[in-house]
Structure formats: C-alpha cells, structure tokens
Write a structure and sequence with these properties.
4 copies of one chain form a homotetramer. Chain A is an all-alpha fold. Helices cover about 80% and strands about 0% of the residues of chain A. In chain A, helix 1 packs antiparallel against helix 2 and helix 2 runs antiparallel to helix 3. Chain A starts with 8 loop residues before the first helix and ends with a helix.
C-alpha cells in the first residue's frame, strides 16, 4: 500500500460496502413503488455517507501526504493544488 | 406503481446499477492502493450521479404529485413542506 | 408584487440584510488577520443561511406558482423544468 | 498579518465586496417582485462565489499552515482535524 490511507483500508471498504447496499436498497424502493420523498431521503443519506468516506481519505491524505517532511518545496505547490481542486470538485458535485 | 416515477423506473434503476458499480470501483481503488486524489474524484462523480437520480425523482414528483388537480387545498401545505424539506436534506447532506 | 413570495418579502429581506452583515464580517476577519479555519466556519454559516433563503423561496414558488390551478397543462412541463433546473443549480453550485 | 492568506488579502476582500453587492442585488430583486426562479439562480451564484473564497483560503492555509516545517508532530493531528472538520462543514452546510 503506497498511500496514507493504508491503515484505514478495512474501515473505508466496510463503509463502501454499506453504501453499495444502500444504493441497492434505493433501486428496490423504486421497484416496489415507494414514495418519492422517502427515496430522496435515502439519496441524501447515501451522499452524506460518501462525504464521510471522502473526509476520511482527505484526513489520511493530509496527514501522510501533505504534512510529510519528504515533500520538498518544489512539489508543494502541485500537492496543494491537487487537494484544493479535489475539495472544489466535492463542493461543486 | 403508485407514484409518478413509474415511467422512469427502468432509467432510474439503470442509473442506480451504474452507481453501484462505481461504488464497487472505489472500493477496488482502495484495495489496489490508488492515489487518494483520484479516489476523491470518483467520489465526486458518484455524488453527482446520485444528484441526477434525485433531480429525476423530483421532476416526476413535481409533475405528477404536486401539479395534480387531485391534490386538494387541504393537502397542499403538507405536500409543499415535504418537498421543500427533501430538497433541504439534499442541500445539507 | 406579482409572485408568490410577496407575503414573505420582509422576512426574506431581513435575512438577506443579516447575510450581508455576515459577509462584511468575513471581510473584517481577513482585515484583522483572523485564523483561516474560523473564517471558513463563517463561510459555511453564510452558505447555510443562503440555503434557507433559497428554501423559503422554493416553498413560496411551489405553493403559489406550481400548485396553482391556473397553470394549464401546456405550461406545466416548462414550470417543472424550471424548478428542477433551479434545484440542480443549488446542488451543484 | 499572522496567517498564510496575507498576500491574498486584497483579492479576497475584493471578492467579498462583490458578493456583498450580489446579496444586496438579491434583496432588490425581492423588492421589485422578480421571478423566484431568477432569484434562486442568483443565490446559486453567491454560494459558488463563497465557495471560491473558501477554496482560496484553504489553499493558503494548506500552503502556509499545514505544509510548514515549523508544525511539529505533536501539533499535526490537531491541525489535520481542524482542516478536515472545516471542509466537512462546507460540504454539509
């Protein structure tokens, strides 16, 4: 495992498995003709759960890849732009 | 199918199946130790795709459940609150 | 006042005045060299307050402009698209 | 100026002044009874502009306060949590 989230691998994958189940559950709600509003509520829950995965990855990335003495000055600007752009994509998704 | 998204059932379920595959793909990226930033990009893509499903449901709900002559004045306030609250949850997820 | 939010005009304008003050407060925090994280927190507060204004407008629009017997079938599709697109812009801002 | 955004102070304050004007413009739209959907579009624009200010601050914070050799190991965890929590608040606003 090259990157900083190695220790959190199991935790992240468990969360993603749960999210996969939630998405499948939404498909089942549509199959069964459940009320739109209840389906929208589940969609909000999936997005909130995805955001938690994103924040966990951002935490590990910041901890291990940004605040890392091995990142020389020459690489810093690129690393900073990368992470700011990634947050920008999450905000504007 | 009781609710208004009946005609869009297949389209919505296809989208959700694709999203499920994307979530599984993110788990695989973690398994393979892919770069955090690339995983964050995929998470943004999943959330954007979920938003499209939500907007499609909102469209069908508005079309068939709100703008529906069968909704009497007594039920209107409740219907309005339901939909506004659902949008609020999506905005604040 | 042509549109549905007429009764809420004062409430909405009070909120916007408060938001204007908050934005000015953020500029002052920058002037005074306050800590970035505290400024980011204030930015989240402004966006949450803007979302509340948006939801209030959406409520009045749904109540008076969508669930309105005067909207004939020919206009419905356009009205539905308008509101769904507006929510889409709020979600993707 | 203690913090990292010092060099960007003018740029940030110009943006905030523009946002203040946009908020005032929204209040004027309400005064003049403009169409709800057009007001919602302006609200999205304000939120997008606020996000840009937030991303600029996040960039300067990451550049100067996180990727800073002066931050010792003991302070890192706290700095990481601070920034991740701030991004979380922006995502969930």
């Amino acid at each position: 495992m090259k990157y900083g989230y190695g220790e959190k691998k199991d935790k992240l994958q468990n969360r993603l498995r749960r999210i996969e189940g939630q998405v499948r559950g939404i498909s089942r709600m549509i199959e069964e003709g459940k009320y739109c509003i209840d389906i929208l509520t589940q969609i909000s829950a999936v997005e909130a759960a995805m955001d938690k995965v994103a924040l966990e990855l951002l935490r590990e990335h910041t901890r291990h890849c940004l605040m890392n003495d091995a990142v020389g000055p020459a690489d810093r600007e690129e690393k900073v732009s990368e992470v700011v752009d990634a947050v920008g994509r999450l905000l504007a998704k």
